[in-house]
Amino acid sequence: MKRPFNFLAGMLALATLTLLASGTVYAHPGLEGVGGGFLAGLTHPLLGLDHIVAMVAVGLWSLSQVPKFRSMIPLLAMLGMLLGALSAWAGLVIPGMEFGVAMSVLLMGLLLITLARMPTSLGSLIVVLFLFCHGQAHGSEMPSGIAPWAYLAGFTVATLGIIYLARRAGSLMAARDKHLLKGIGVAIAALGASFVIG
């Protein structure tokens, strides 16, 4: 039983270091000092608490879905992020996108609390829509003078990494007690509500 606990301890340490490195818990801190398109893209999701929490929620919630849909979720996340970023680069301005990002955190937390098993069509739409909001935010906040496709690759890798790590940690927790996942869902929903209100 030591290996799961070592893995979870490592995950908590990584999350703590990431938050400390950001120097802030604001949703979208600046990227000053981060050089290169790929590195900027890789770093951006890790410096936004709303992005980290949303991806963790997606990864944990995916565990309660049927195997076929569960295997699709990372690809759907990539699709939503890509569409959102491309829409921002095309000059599409969607009013209230930050509110959409905040609501995605709140709603993903609620889905995690219930461990709701969605039909594949509805669940796919939810994942793409939520990740579209995050992709729009990433795309609109891309620093000037960097390669867009390298930036896109960076934040895609970071997003998938968070989802898969959350899924791995969640499977270990679920093996012990599914109420642990629901408890995390409560915390995520509460954080999402604070984003919406604040």
Descriptive notes:
Pfam families: HupE_UreJ (PF04955). The chain crosses the membrane at residues 37-61, 73-93, 99-115, 122-140, 146-167, 179-197. Keywords: Membrane, Signal, Transmembrane, Transmembrane helix. This is HupE/UreJ family protein. This protein is mainly α. The radius of gyration is 16 Å and the shape is globular. α3 packs parallel to α5 (97-114), α5 (97-114) runs antiparallel to α6 (120-140) and α5 runs antiparallel to α8. The protein contains eight helices and no strands. It has one domain.
Structure in a nutshell:
Residues 1-27 form the signal peptide. The chain is mostly helical and 198 residues long.
Strand content: under 5%
Largest sheet: none
Number of domains: 1
Gyration radius, in Å: 16 Å
What is the helix fraction of residues, given as a range? Answer: over 70%
Number of strands: 0
Total helical segments: 8
Ranges with pLDDT <50 over ≥5 residues?
1-35
Instruction: Please state the average pLDDT score.
Output: 83
- Which structural class best describes the helix and strand composition? mainly alpha
Distance between the termini: 41 Å
Dominant shape = globular
Summarize the helix and strand pattern as letters. Answer: HHHHHHHH
